[in-house]
Prior knowledge:
The protein contains three helices and eight strands, in the order ββαβββαββαβ. The two termini are 27 Å apart. It has one domain (2-152): Aminopeptidase (3-Layer(aba) Sandwich), CATH 3.40.630. It is globular and about 45 Å long. With 186 residues, it is α/β, with parallel strands linked by helices.
Amino acid sequence: MFRWHPGGNLHWLVLCDHASNKIPGPLHDLGLSPFDLTRHIACDLGAVDVARRIARALKAPMIEHGISRLVIDPNRSRDDPTLIPEVSDGTLIPGNQGLSEAERDRRWRVYHQPYHRRIDRHLKQMAMTSMVPLVLSIHSFTPMLADTREPRPWSVGVLWRHDPTFAHHLIRELSRDGVVVGDNQP
Length: 186
């Protein structure tokens, strides 16, 4: 349920959590139209191409999730209410309505965890070589969500969790030419 792209530069790991709009056959496209599966609700539009280009440029390994975030969002924890969305940006997801706990558990085991086990395995390999990993997780976002109608002013966002050193350097570089960069936004 993921694709692994090896790379020789082990200082980096490039991720694309929302790379695909694919929905496994037994889930019958979650009851969505073909058009809905081409929208930003199904995947981060353009993100996988950007992630692959960055991974190639850095000669970095890359892992891309191969299932639509509408099936299960690999960028969410087990207890997050948006892990398996019933509505996404104002669109009802019929195949996610009233799921049993058994189906939620199955999706977690089959579609979420293999991706995270592969990420963890790579990070452990990096740690064994005493490398501090720089993880780039590539996403895209729409300039306005349909359900809020509020414009999002950023051209790019840099999200970080622990040490802000690299993130702040990247934000400065990206902002130099007047690009509006979100610091942990959106």
